[in-house]
Amino acid sequence: MTITATTEYEPLTESTAVSLAKNLQFFKEGALLHCREIGDGNLNLVFHIRDENNTGIIIKQALPYAKVVGESWPLTLHRATIEGNYLKNAATLVPNLVPKVYYTNETLAITIMEDLSHLEIVRNGFLDGKDFPLLSKHIGEYLAKTLFYTSDFGLNQQEKKKLQQAFANPELCKITEDLVFTDPFFDSETNEYEPELLGSVEGIWNDAELKLEVAKLKNTFLTSGEALLHGDLHTGSIFANDIDTKVIDPEFAFFGPIGFDIGQFFANILIQAITREGSQRSNVTSHLYQVWEEFTVTFSDLWKTESVEYFTQTPGYLDYILTKVFTDSIGFAGCELIRRTIGLAHVADLDKIKPHERRISVKQQALFLGQTLIKNATNIRNIQDVELLLEK
Ligand code: SR1
Ligand code: MG
Questions:
Q1: Are residues 19 and 59 in the same domain?
Q2: pTM (2 decimals)?
Q3: Rounded Cα distance, 336 and 264, in Å
Q4: Does the structure show a pLDDT above 70 at 49?
Q5: Per-residue model confidence (pLDDT) at position 42
Q6: How far apart are the two ends of the chain, measured CA to CA in Å?
Q7: What average pLDDT does the structure give for the chain?
Q8: Does pLDDT of 1 surpass 70?
Q9: 327: domain CATH number?
Q10: Residue 291 Cβ < 6 Å to ligand 1
Q11: 357 and 273: one domain?
């Protein structure tokens, strides 16, 4: 079976991915190609194709269902177009921090992009004890630039509204609305947790104060189209080594609250921090300080030099926005901590902990920290306050 750029949609195999790459002339005639499907995420196929000189490309293809659950959960292929368009837009804002996109095809739901195999997924690197010294400086810059330049502060407000339409992403937003903001907070079938956690889990379901704060956060996520978000900025969506960082997988992109991307990153750093102790832990928590510092410095510079909004010159307005973004980020981080512990989509940082008793105890800490962040978001003023809670 040969797949060409005009073929109807069908899922690629290693062999048809190679034939497509040849048809699109990504490699020299007669090149000896090697292809491996390497997708380890919840939703897509990812093919790594390289020639005898190790020059490679990545072909990412959306499946018409959620791979993590199976064909019973249909899912739009349009997310591949959203992903390609987000990466093309990000390439104009943070060219060094995203993979180059070489080709997109809406019918086949594919994005062909730069081979990043010299880097590794940050979550996996963390699990091997790596610290990625420049990660948070890069992610802080990424957040500041992608969020500022797509917000009403940095983008012509009429243009922003048009872009907002192009990034309508209702099905993928629904996944987040359900899996991050709803299901973990009641007895939903999608939840998954060890029986030993039942007491803590029921504590969450019965905590009226917590649920009110989660309702407010969900409302902000549903209604606040502040900027174009990545939408799923966890440590599995970032490739890095000691000097380079690339953000991948923006299929959840949409216009939402600025604090959501920041909160997802905070939470996934916190999850890793909870699993470590002593200096190993502070190597990771330093990313919380650095990402917020880099974000605020760069965002504030852009606010002063690149603003398109008259009121950005008004004394106190920048501080008001940064405080609001920080408070939102803390609340969103709390939701992410809880859903990664007891929801449908877990993370290896927690699930791979051995022995079993330690895994349960670390997960209890993750749940407690998540609840505390959500309930105290408005009183948590800075990263030091977050670190104090972590140490408790
Ligand atoms: C059904 S998708 C489950 C999760 O995987 C993605 O990476 C998102 O985080 C989503 O919530
Ligand atoms: Mg993903």
A1: yes
A2: 0.97
A3: 6
A4: yes
A5: 86
A6: 59
A7: 97
A8: no
A9: 3.90.1200.10
A10: no
A11: yes
The strand pairing partners of 74, in sequence order, are: 65
Query: Which atom of ligand 1 lies closest to the CA of 234?
Result: 9
Whole-Å CA distances, 314 to 184, 223, 296? 41, 25, 18
Single-letter code of the amino acid located at 253: A
Banded pLDDT at 299 (limits 50, 70, 90): very high
Last residue of a domain, one of 114, 142, 169: 114
Domain membership of residue 7 (yes or no) is no
Per-residue pLDDT tens digits for 348-369: 999 999 999 999 999 999 999 9
Which residue's alpha carbon is at the smallest distance from atom 3 of ligand 1?
Answer: 345
Is the CB–ligand 1 distance for residue 68 below 6 Å? yes
Residues 84-96: what's their mean pLDDT? 98
Digit-coded pLDDT (tens) for 263-285 = 999 999 999 999 999 999 999 99
Report CA 52 to chain centroid distance, whole Å.
Answer: 33
- The answer, yes or no, to whether residue 372 has pLDDT greater than 80, is yes
Q: What is the 3-state secondary structure (H, E, C) of 305-361?
A: HHCCCHHHHCCCHHHHHHHHHHHHHHHHHHHHHHHHHHCCCCCHHHHCCCCHHHHHH
Q: Are residues 252 and 319 in the same domain?
A: yes
**Cα(42) to centroid(ligand 2), Å:** 7
CA angle in degrees (0–180, nearest 5) for 102-108-109? 70
Residue of 121, 176, 179, 189 with the most ligand 1 atoms within 8 Å of its CB, for mutation:
179
Query: Which residue's CA is the closest to the ligand 1 atom numbered 2?
Result: 42
The residues with which 228 forms a beta bridge, in sequence order, are: 255
For ligand 1, mutation pick of 73, 175, 260 (most atoms within 8 Å of CB): 175
Domain count, the chain: 2
Q: Distance from the CA of 139 to the center of ligand 1, in angstroms? A: 20
Radius of gyration of the chain (CA): 21
- What pLDDT is recorded for position 392? 84
**Can you give the residue range of the structural domain that contains 69?**
14-23+31-114
Helix axes 198-205, 317-342, angle to 10 degrees: 140
Structure tokens at 264: 């997802």
